[in-house]
Amino acid sequence: MNNIQVMPVPVAPTTTLSKPIELYVFVDPLDPGSWNLQSIIRKLQVNYDQYFTLRFVLSTELASLNVDCQRVNSCNSDHEEIDVSHPVLPSIAVKAAELQGKKAGYRYLVKLQEYALLNMKNVRSCATLVEIAEEVQLDTQEFQTDFRSIEAARAFQSDLCITREMDVEEVPSFVFFNENIEDEGLKVCGNYSYEVYEQILEELLDGELICQQPPSVDELFKRYHTLTTKEVASIYNISVQTAERELKKKMLQQKIDRIHCEELSLWRLK
């Protein structure tokens, strides 16, 4: 860990931890490296979900936030809203989705990142953001109302306040808190290998980590819906070639589809 800067964070979580560790992940939903970060988080969840709870904090710093929120709020109809496009809108959309529940917000964030990765449509536009809500089976009418609401804007502003309070200046960043509320948090800035975060968990727990048995491939796709070949290979500690063969079998069984992507091999639950 000599190549990484670990910094104390004076802000402790305000709630009692249900698990020994609380992990804050600071992300920009449109950051090109967000999918790689998601892969690391998923492997940590599969292996060590019993040790930590997870909270995503959106950290898109935009001076024009209030102006663009006002522009969305001033739309009198969905048709007017269609033409609005701005980098702040995906973050507000995630917070609107979260108003339907934490799991709904997480599904929305992952699908948003998938859209950005595949570069199929403009994820900064209201039309695409509503389409994503439909695809992850949110209540679309409620989503559109919440998207224009002051609650979603305030929720995003709250994330920016947390970012400032924890002195996070780079995304992605991880902040770890243990169950002792008197201890300072541990901040790791930047995107590092899975092993770095695994080691930090072990050090914070002050003991050997017990790795959980990974679920079946079918259960894995039910949990995450979309995965890359490399993700599957990493989770099961098998070669990419072996993972590719197994995924092709699942495709022949019509359980998953392959999504065309120039940069990586992507698979999605049918």
TrEMBL record:
The keyword Methyltransferase does not apply. Keywords: Cytoplasm. The keyword tRNA-binding does not apply. Belongs to the SpxH family. Interacts with Spx. Adapter protein required for efficient degradation of Spx by ClpXP under non-stress conditions. Interaction with Spx stabilizes Spx and exposes the C-terminus of Spx for recognition and proteolysis by ClpXP. This is ClpXP adapter protein SpxH. It comes from Viridibacillus soli.
